[in-house]
Write a structure and sequence with these properties.
By secondary structure, the protein is α+β, with helices and mostly antiparallel strands. It contains 7 helices and 15 strands. The chain is 23% helix and 31% strand. The protein folds into 2 domains: 119 residues, Aminotransferase class 4, branched-chain amino acid transferase, N-terminal domain (D-amino Acid Aminotransferase, Chain A, domain 1), CATH 3.30.470; 151 residues, Alpha-Beta Barrel (D-amino Acid Aminotransferase, Chain A, domain 2). Strands 7, 8, 9, 10, 11, 12, 13, 14 and 15 form a 9-stranded mixed beta sheet that branches. The relative contact order is 0.14. The chain is globular, with a radius of gyration of 20 Å.
Length: 281
Amino acid sequence: MKKNLSIINGEFKDSISVYDRGLAYGDGFFETMLWDSFEKKKETIFGVEFWLRHLKRIKDGCRLIQINFPSDDEIVRQRNIILKASLKEKKSGLLKMIITRGVGGRGYKFEKNMSPTVIFLSLQKPKIEKEYFKSGVKVKICKTHLSKNTNLFGFKHLNRLDSVLARSEWEDKNFFEGVFVDSKQNILEGTMTNIFFVQKKTLITPPIIDSGINGVMRQVVIDNAKFFFDKVIIQNINLSDVKNFDQMFLTNSVLKIIPVSKFEKKKIYNKKECKRFYKFL
């Protein structure tokens, strides 16, 4: 696409009201997805990867904080408007959906009947070096701490300042990602990824209890792990445990799965079994 596209409540626009609660309070959620298309009998068919999982998570978040979510049919209608327009220039890309409570007055209290603001952005896929998938990436520990929130953990709400601060900690392009740890040195997640370790034939990942995001790709990996691993364990992982693991990889909906070759000073070697899992997903 020569230019990114955006629609707001079904209309091609690129600006929102200064009174939108998403801008004032971060009062909303977002999802970032991959979309693709193919030709079938001279017709272009398009779809969004793991659409139903993304839709469920954003709906669950809206239900939790009482944002009036439109009907599924209306959301799909708006999604299709922007994807059909995108097909004029591109056959695949990135789709971002943002929903806020909508336009309101000053103050935290909100009216129950507010109309939400629904935004779709059609963006180009980020360029990801092929070498990342072949040889793995380097990651570091962040000094920034991840905020705890027993109400909103697991969701992609619009308050992402922890990740913004953490990502500002390094300029070295040799590091691909930074890792959050808690006060007890337990590994939580990356600034933009979930984290998995492998020990022999066991897949291990940190729990999402009171902080972090329950990523869609994290869910997909856990659901499909039985085809490649003997068992999956969700448990606290301390920094001191890293030396005991055979492999490590990162996940999110855009990157899917990227192996880690070095965690701080520890070298990690990716084996054939794990590489087959990467290709499967």
